[in-house]
Amino acid sequence: MRIVVNDIAASTGGAMTVLRDFYRCVCENDTENEWIFLLGDRYFEETDNVKILPLPEIKKSGVKKLLFDFVTGRKFIAALKPDVVFSMQNIITFGLKVPQATYIHQSIPFQNVKKFSFLKVSECKLAAIQHLIGAIIKRSAQKCDRVIVQTQWMKEAVCRQCRLPSERVSVVMPQVKPFGAVPEAKYDATTFFFPTSFGIYKNNAAVFAVSEQLEQKGLDFTVTLTLPEEQSRGQVTCVGRLPYEEVVARYHTSTLLFPSYIETFGYPLAEARQAGAIVLAADTAFSREVLAGYENAYFFDPFQPQELAELMERVITGEIVKQDVPVSQTVQQDSWLEVMDIVRRTV
Q: At 275, which CATH number?
């Protein structure tokens, strides 16, 4: 079987992490089928049955990318004579007469927590994703043979908004691998941690506002964010990007803050849960799903910062105490194996 994987859009961040994990899983687990990856550059090595076709010119321009998805891509991919095409970038190649599967990990068009406005400069790009790109993603989902999403809430949203039968949408929750040996470190109830980035929906502003309130009350605490260092102020320290090992160490010594209100899955929630950390999370469908049944989880309205302030104060003063919870260190089956199986069965 010949399988074409289209992920020209991926180059950095979470999208590249997803692509790298899937490529690794294919190389390690399938030597029988032929896999052809269409990428923005030659990011990976080829093997006997895994080929890389870099298309940097398409990657350079959003217009060229859309043209490829809607017009030129069908001819290019058809010439490769695939048995199935798997898009990892939310949108299929329109017009192809072969079975297609798509991995939808863009949640902005499907969430109902926030409606972004084209009239606000800070929201214009997100509004385009929500309303314009979102319309394409939804049309794509209607056209493809199989949709793969990360969470049950996304499946329900995709089925409802795209009017798809349940059997056409599969949920494959990302796997959080066991941390293994972690250096001995003591939990500090006055230390908070939020691995974040820029973006309105990350809700960083709430963390700064709440920290200022607690600082004015004379409480002793520190908050660490993974924003550029120059963003630091008051008792909020920004440290830039951290190595994964350092992030894991902080899960064991700190309370996780997660005010972000738009995510598909929310990896820090699952990682902090595995570490047994106290988690103060925005009350959303994704956080409720990832943290279901977890005793150290506490939720707040992301648009009511006072609720987060109250939870943080309860942690600092010892009213909220970290509970000893069983943490599984069992190595589970790689979730990408299930994705591979769904793709192969799309034929």
A: 3.40.50.2000
